[in-house]
Amino acid sequence: MSKKNKNKKRQIIAMLLGLFSMGKIGFKQEAHFTSAISNSVKTDKNIFSLKNNEQSKLRLQDDFYTSINEEWLKNAKIPEGESMYGTFDQVSELNEKNILNILKELSSVQNIQNKKGLPEQKLADFYKSVVDLENRNKQGVSPIKKYLDLYDNAKNLDELWKADSSVFNETGRSCLVSVSIEIDAKDSNKNILDIRGLTNHLRKHTIDSEDAQKACEKFVTKLLELSGENPEKAQIDAKEIVKLEKILSDASLEAQELYDIDKTYNIFSIEELNQLYPNLNISRVLKNMGFKDVKLLEIADVNKFKKSYEYFNEKNFDILKLYAKTSVLIRYGIYLSQDFTDALDDLNKSLFGIEGKKSIEKKAVGTVSGWLEDDLGKIFVQKFFSEDAKKDIENLILKIKLSYKEKIKNTTWLSEKTREKAIKKLDTMKLKIGYPEKWSDELDKADIKNYKDGGSYFANICEMQKKIMQKRNKELNEPVDKTKWHVSAYEVNAYYNPQNNEIVFPAGILQSPFYDINAPEEQNMGAIGAIIAHEISHAFDSEGSKFDENGNAVNWWTDEDRENFKKRCEKFVDAYDNLEISEGVKSNGKLTLFENIADVGAISCMLDILSKKENPDYKKFFKSWAVSWRMIASPEITSQLSKSDVHSSNKIRTNRTLANFEEFYKTFYIKEGDKMYIAPENRVKLW
Selecting from 3.30.420.10, 3.30.70.930, 3.40.50.300, 1.10.1380.10, what CATH number does the domain 141-326 have? Predict the structure, then answer.
């Protein structure tokens, strides 16, 4: 899947499989990822089958994506506990198996405590704390009971703030105000503090329907009952919480707007915020969190912040207190007993059509890999990443950049001045391949314990949250660390970061079918090559193009060129809008604009490279693109993503994208009257 780094406050959308992340989301920048590659991990030989489809009843001239993937689509099944399954998930499964083997091996080591504080000990004991359901069930709600009581016992707003300060000091997270360290969009060398008020526990549009709201009410009711509330009061309180969730959701930016720097770069001084929001008392909030000498703050979603602020008064004290208490249950319930996680599984089934449940081992892999990313990443790359693959990918990227430079030089609708700026941005684009040059040290001193040694799953989470927040406190007044990665080394993903003008491809995605050093060149070009070109294209899409070569939000376009660009973007919106995803579900061209630009740019770039090859196998190239994006999903998640995912559905991003290129028509003899056919005047292209 693909996401793009437009700073941390952007929601993770493409990989939405439930309500809550297992990792450090909220502390680290969220990337806007897309895909990547490698032959370093053993893979299923059948994962990349390119058949001639001679026996397919579906003409590829009418539906290329389904025809190419027909056999796989018929036989594939969504794993238990998941809402979708595709090529990316197949590769992720392989990585997860390798990670599980690492964790089991470490957990079986005798005298692991002799390595106290080392990555091996932390990984082993954290894993043990997750899979130890016996002790988790014995504890029940007790690990968080004192925090629930702190909020419950508050008699007024001032006491509620004091309670929240205590919760923050012990857990590393506030339940009333969220903050994070961002890169200043206008000065990419500086960090800035981003502040949000009450935050949604649910993504925008998740509870638009009455059925979804009822499912959420049932979930919150269950959590409140597990905390000790009587059923009647729990039901009443749950309705109030879901109502508030809906209000906050309706007030928040749309998914695509979260990537728009013109909408999210809103800077306020402390004095301004204290005048605008006196009841919030920003100075006190920051002091309680340990942030000193803060002069400026960023508010990404101003409208939602204003709506949130309406609850910070004595009039709304009761609902604010209930929100804080419920936040504890929602945020930390997944780290407690089985009945809490069962409640979440039931909600995910109702909202996203998720059948069955993940095994405790699978959940543990997700949790450990989400928190101890660098400790685990070091071991993963040592065992499974090939330096030869890294060098090969670096060479491939340089080849694609050279091709892109030629495309920009030959773009007739751009002025010479803007072309020169674009080429400069391309030339200075940085590459990060495989794993970080410098591993993070933020959890080096985290004291991780299993239950036998007096620790717990919940306590380990709090320990890591506190260490991360301490690190963020230091980072605020330091220059931006441009060596930092925003994905783990084993993640099956990649991203372009406009604020560092870089493309990042972790080791986890550098494997078949995205990349195989022994595969035909056209196959790699249609998969990893197109993914690389996709990421490079993000530097010049409708949002990435607002940043210069240094990662600053600066307009480097002439007015005429920008207007021409906007007109071409409007054609993209029309071309990808109102297409059928599934029965009753349509595409949104505005929501998916910059991803569609990147997809078309990627195919255009790769076709230019292939055209210079003697006797290129275009069939293999186009089929490779289709196989990369094959996926099945529940109807519920399909509908949800159509409203919140900035990527087109996989079928659309395959078919509609390829249908813009004459080479595709010639290769498969597509003509007017075929369903894949699009009249030349309606085809779109930027680069």
Answer: 1.10.1380.10
